[in-house]
Amino acid sequence: MRDASPQTIYLKDYAPFGFAVQDVHLTFDLAPSATRVTARIRFVPDRAAADRTFYLHGENLSLISAKIDGESVKPTLTDEGLTYDVPDMPFTWEAEVQIDPAGNTALEGLYLSNGMYCTQCEAEGFRKITYYPDRPDVMSTFTVRINGPHGTLLSNGNPVAAGDGWAEWHDPWPKPAYLFALVAGELIAHRDTFTTMEGRKVDLALYVRPGDEGKCAFGMQALKDSMVWDEKVYGRPYDLDVFNIVAVDDFNMGAMENKGLNIFNASAVLASPETSTDGNFERIEAIIAHEYFHNWTGNRITCRDWFQLCLKEGLTVFRDSQFTADMRSAPVKRISDVIDLRARQFPEDQGPLAHPVRPESFQEINNFYTATIYEKGAEVIAMLKTLVGDDAYAKALDLYFDRHDGQACTIEDWLKVFEDATGRDLSQFQRWYAQAGTPHVAVSEAFADGTYTLEFTQSTPPSATTPDPAPLVIPIAVGLIAPDGSEAMPTQILELTQASQTFTFPGLNAKPVPSILRGFSAPVVLDHDADHAFLLAHDTDPFNRWEAARSLARTSLMNTILKGTTPDAAWINGIANVMRDDTLDPAYRALMFGLPGQSELAAEIQRAGHIPDPDAIWVAVNTLKQALSDKISDDLGAMYAAHQVTAPYAPDAAQSGMRAFGNAILSLITRQDGGDQAQAQYDAADNMTQQLSALANLIRAGRGDAALSQFEAQWKDDRLVMDKWFGLQVMEAKPDDAADTAKALTKHAGFNWKNPNRFRATLGALAAHHAGFHAKDGSGYALLADWLITLDPVNPQTTARMCSAFQTWRRYDAIRQSMISKELDRIASTPDLSRDTTEMITRIREA
Ligand code: BES
Ligand code: ZN
Fold first, then answer.
1. Of 149, 213, 449, 561, which has the most beta carbons under 10 Å away?
2. DSSP for 459-479?
3. Average pLDDT estimate for 714-727
4. 64-82 residues labelled b (16+ CB within 10 A) or e (exposed)
5. Nearest ligand to residue 316 Cα
6. Which ligand is in closest contact with the Cα of 256?
7. Phi (first) and psi of residue 717, to 5 degrees
């Protein structure tokens, strides 16, 4: 049973554990509903610690026996752990517990997924395996014996010995319990090897269920690429004799960096051209890199407490984005990241769930694996690198690894290495970690006597956790373009530190056009009426050129929505030129043609002092796309033909760019031919990118039924492809049909709602369908609430994450607000609601 009124944990209350853990021995006797776990742990009192209370976390455990130095003891069991009056000298703790992996639907701790045993311990799942000080600052070596009749028995570290029905593993690197992992099942290994820069030969394996062995090669290559990259760019070699990855079907997140034994959601690692889109390949490459990079940023150097989560996640997201930029196209990666930041992090930072990159309190840590911690956390590091420069960044990172290897650290430790490596005072910069909210930067300009002046004013809207924001250090990358389109001043980094600040640029012949916030040098909202059409034509910074197109589109859409004007010719003409410009990378051109998200437009409309109408936004977006399609209809056929890949399929940047652009054109063609070309592409497709894109167009054109049936018949046995089938129908539904479509799918025999991927594919797609979720009759709200209430007792973590669909509710009209409020009340008043969901709903309602 959970607490009725959950406890709040505060950063300021941090106190070290009163004991060091010298080593941990675990024995698992696996049985689906009655697994026995025997732990033998050596504790050494820490005489420096003020509090030497012996408290071990434990949840859902049946304690069979406990001993101290071989003598039976009877500890006091509490709701969430146990205490005992232990000797004030080193001692050995032994405990045997019984657990129920088969009954573990929350997918935290040890659980079964399609008959395979696996674990998820971050953040606080180890306490569901045995009694332990389950906190990241308690680090120890682990030795694990697994007894079970399975062909594959895996744990962290290096294999020590194995026989029929058992295996033993030893991890020599001290680690916190959240990095513990165990896997057992009948699995097939896809093997390879890698030799590190230190000459260590590492056996690599990717373990999958029989039938999936054809989907391993790409992930394995991504792993080897990641290993090479981390050696080359950060000087970080791998440190064990084996590196294992396991794919599991039921997983709350994307993947987990357990030491030497990464566990992946099957969707985040299995890939083949027939079943995976180009987007899937790119995501898989990035996630494999991310989890691998954690070996240094997260595992060798971990977090002191969960408030420091961005120390490992922000840094590792930053590292994986550098990797993707190197492997593929840097501008395309940057633009994609900013699209994602605006779609996921900005709404969080601007709504009731706003929190600093380093929060100061939480109730359920699982609710803080957020876009703010991850994506804004990565942006903060990108700014730091911009401010100190590439060389100083490299020096600071070397110092970080030297100084803190083997430690559990804080953001203060992280900033200190930058201060020591560069001599810079980062006390003001530290506010980026402490303050919530998206800063706004307003710009005004003046020109006189050959001197151009830019004045910047920053302000951060107050929020619940940051009622009184102070000025931040904001690096603003600026270039100046002369009226003839040539570059008058290459990119310079301006450091904005005051609420308001002026920068002058002398010696100019004419008033330039400024290109501000190049490369999106800071995660802010820029208020600036720039000459976007000019910048779209002339900006040399690829990010800002894209941003110019985006701003033109936004202005056009806002004018249509708020003033009823017809689509703006400046965007249509500018984009038409870009699309015909064959000197530009097709992947970049595909991005250029994208429109701001509908939820993002709703936020913009609210900022402008109006109430967003989701239907009107939907209509405006479709009208603008139709106008572009009409304008260049004569060219579309040739453009489409010129961007078909004839070479054998490869998921590389060049080919996927071609397909992305070809498919962007296909969507314009469908507006002209009603789906004939899409049907032809569907019938000829030999890869999922082409097949799925054609299917989306057919649904949009109102003629998807035959293809949907064919697709289902073709892919009914492939879980990951069927997730796409579930999701796409909701995504492409007309606003009035989205909730009905989702509801019908929840009645489909294949709707296994306990599987997080299938649940998210269906209901997550509804939540992401702006006009559909916000349908006037409230059907979207009601359906999501019904399913959150159903899922909560089974899987609180996934339920709570999806509550964020309601976080923007204060933007909308009174009728919608009252319908949402009713649903939030209905969820909140559900008996025995989990701590996870309670916290989310409470915070959202307090808006
Ligand atoms: N450490 C996390 C996985 C995790 C998150 C476990 C929350 C438990 C609770 C992992 O490194 C991670 O960040 N995974 C991301 C993908 C990554 C590419 C950003 C995920 O799972 O979404
Ligand atoms: Zn991570």
1. 561
2. E----SS-SS-----EEEEEE
3. 98
4. eebebeeeeeebeeeeebb
5. 2
6. 1
7. -95, 0
